[in-house]
Amino acid sequence: MRARPSAGTQTLAAAAIATLTLSACSDETHVGGGGGEIDPGVTIRDSAGVTIVENTTPRWGDGEEWRLAPDPVLSIGVAEGLAEYEFYRANSALQLADGRIVIGNHGTQELRFFDSEGQHLYSAGREGEGPGEFRSIGRVWPMGADSLAIFDYQTFRFSIFSISGEFGRTIRLEMPGGGLALPEGFVDRGRILTSTSVPGTSKPGVHRDVVMYHLCSLDGQVLDSLGRFPGSELYGTEVGGNVSVASRPFGLDAQVAVASDRWYYGSSGGYEIEVHSLDGALERIIRYDRPNRRLTSDVADGYRERTAGTFWARIPTPETLPAYSRLFADDAGNLWVEDYALRDEPATWSVFNPEGRLLGSIEIPPGGLIKQIGADFVLGIWKDELDVEQARMYRLLKDDS
């Protein structure tokens, strides 16, 4: 297992070199689409072996944008009816290779399987701590062609089920020193990228904790340490020699996305995202020339009014909002970045191709949480105007001409 410099150290070093050499850089290029035409919306350069992709404008022109069809092609979930179609805190949805849909329902701690038309087939799992049972069912990941891995956020273990709903085995992630690991995603050959908060990083005032990322095997053993990175922004209050911490409102947070052969990290402090290889090496930095939005006094005052009389109201708010709130790698290798949004604002995602070029943005219907992005669909969990939960699939329309 090899320790590596943190992302912040690598990024600062790359930025320093880039600043010194920018005016005389001979390998700075503008790139385009097919035919090698110049693309004025992006600059790509090398800095100490790290590729820097500077985006200023999207590639998509008018009429070229990807978009979601206005109505879902599949919707599963009812307010009243058969129990199999009623969801409560559904938190995962996955389309299998044969078109079946698997939904993890927290309210009943079970997996529900539906055919491609949305008809219930069978369910698996139940509440408990025994084999094949869940205390806090989490995300469902495919593991090979015929298995599913479901993480339990209370017992910190994976349960492996077949795609037919039979329980197979349990995997528990063992971190050095006994720390608790959270899965971020599966990479090639079924390996798991995990994150672990570093103990002892809390202190008074505004600060960020530290998170470590590891690559683990399917039997739960650590294969490699990928480095230490800035985590969540916190606020600490010292009382009697002890520090009590809470998340800072509108604060920064670490965001991670996992693809089969790489992983992405963003601190959300600015519009910059790091691309790392599976051995932890920093390979590319994706930037978008767009400043963070300011946190207006109306929004900050409204938050303090809602939290009046609580500890939260005393935490100082930042001057600007985070650059983004979520990263997601789709099945085709593109990176989707969710713009940070306030209450009642539409959900907008910026899409970057595998080389880091900004393609454009896509607006997602309100009230939804994306769970899977395929080559031609978006699958997630939505709430309607009556707070009824539904798994919906929208067709992703592209102009590939």
Q: Secondary structure elements and their pairing?
A:
Layout: H1 7-21, E1 42-47, E2 50-55, E3 67-68, E4 74-76, E5 90-95, E6 101-105, E7 110-114, E8 120-124, E9 126-127, E10 133-134, E11 137-142, E12 147-152, E13 157-162, E14 167-172, E15 182-186, E16 192-197, E17 205-216, E18 222-239, E19 242-247, E20 255-258, E21 263-266, E22 272-276, E23 282-288, H2 297-306, E24 324-329, E25 335-339, E26 347-352, E27 358-364, E28 368-373, E29 377-383, E30 389-397
Parallel strand pairs: 2-23, 9-10
Antiparallel strand pairs: 1-2, 3-30, 4-30, 5-6, 6-7, 7-8, 11-12, 12-13, 13-14, 15-16, 16-17, 17-18, 18-19, 20-21, 21-22, 22-23, 24-25, 25-26, 26-27, 28-29, 29-30
Question: Would you give an account of this structure?
Answer:
Helices cover 6% and strands 45% of the residues. The chain is built from 2 helices and 30 strands. The chain is globular. The chain starts with 6 loop residues before the first helix and ends with a strand.
